[in-house]
Amino acid sequence: MPTLLYYPLVRPPQEVLHQALLYWDDVASVVPRDPDVYEAAVTEELKDLKERGLYHPVVLGIEYRRPLDEDSLHLGVLYQELRKLAARTPSPQASVLDAFLLRSKFGHAVEDAIVRLGLGRRIESSERWHGASLAVTREVRLLVLGALAQGVASTSDNRAYTPYTDQRSADVTSLRPMAHGSCVSAWRVELGRLLPLPAPGTSTSEVLAFRDRYAAERERLMSATQTMLCDLRREWEHPADVLVRMRVELKRAREDYQAAARASRMAWVHRFVSVTVGVTTAAAGALVVPELAWIAGIAGSIGFNIATREVRPLFDRTKEHPFSYLHQVDRELA
């Protein structure tokens, strides 16, 4: 299974962390290169999970150089978006800088571009945390960290990453079309009813115990879900065929997992979790959705919803990046 790559912050919230431990191989986030800032930014719980092989800190510019290469597609898109943002801001220097970026999370070129465009300023402080920060607006932070997460997912050769955020604005910013005509069609699949979560207040140790005890049930459910998403991407013209073919396997996997959840005696909730499935490059811009209501009916019988959306074509030429997740902690499904 892929690695859940959380953005825009270093620390995933507890619910997202538990989602990763149940339905993914492990969890990752982009961390600062500076050792002192890393120690302050990464929690003891994440460090413990790292020792267990369940948390993977991503350090840009060292093991992951390609997202910061000057000829990187994602970096080019980022610079273009930053210039557009500066152009439509009447007085960037007077903007309320209500967020910050850890300067050692990304390269000097990105930092210089933000400062040069008037979209941020370096924070000078004796404190190790603030002294390594760049004051920016929330929009700039989401734009930069969303683009870098997409870049890591598209260019990593040794690990499969899937970008995952709990902030709708981050999801929209990282995937929105750049201009008229520069977009492709994609599926949006809502999986919240298919992938229940432990209720708030559940400890990570309880989640880890469930992960170990019911490994077969959770791996079967996530494998069936991942197969369905991959098939939807490849067979974009025949979504109903994919859902009909996967219906029996998904329903059985879901029922087995629900039985395990009941046996655990833990409390569970359903959150809004949607995944955007990019179609293959050959099909980009040509997605035709016949009888969506019928397709949605099939999906509903299994336990999820399906719709369409338009997104920015952020696919790398050599390796396409098909998925991006949005998890909304404040939206509980009935």
Comma- or semicolon-separated keywords:
alpha/beta; 13 strands; 8-stranded mixed β-sheet; 3-stranded antiparallel β-sheet; 11 helices; 334 residues
Strand content: 15-25%
Runs with pLDDT <50, length 5+?
Answer: 281-287, 314-321
What class, by secondary structure content? alpha/beta
Widest sheet: strand ordering: 3-2-1-7-13-11-8-12
- Largest β-sheet summary: 8 strands, mixed
Cα separation of the termini: 28 Å
The radius of gyration computed from the alpha-carbon positions, rounded to a whole number of angstroms, is 20 Å
- Count of β-strands: 13
Task: Describe the 3D structure.
The chain is α/β, with parallel strands linked by helices. The chain is built from 11 helices and 13 strands. It has an 8-stranded mixed β-sheet with strand order 3-2-1-7-13-11-8-12, with helices on both faces. It has a 3-stranded antiparallel β-sheet with strand order 4-6-5. Helix 1 links the parallel strand 1 and strand 2. The radius of gyration is 20 Å and the shape is globular. The protein starts with a strand and ends with a strand. About 4% of the residues have low confidence.
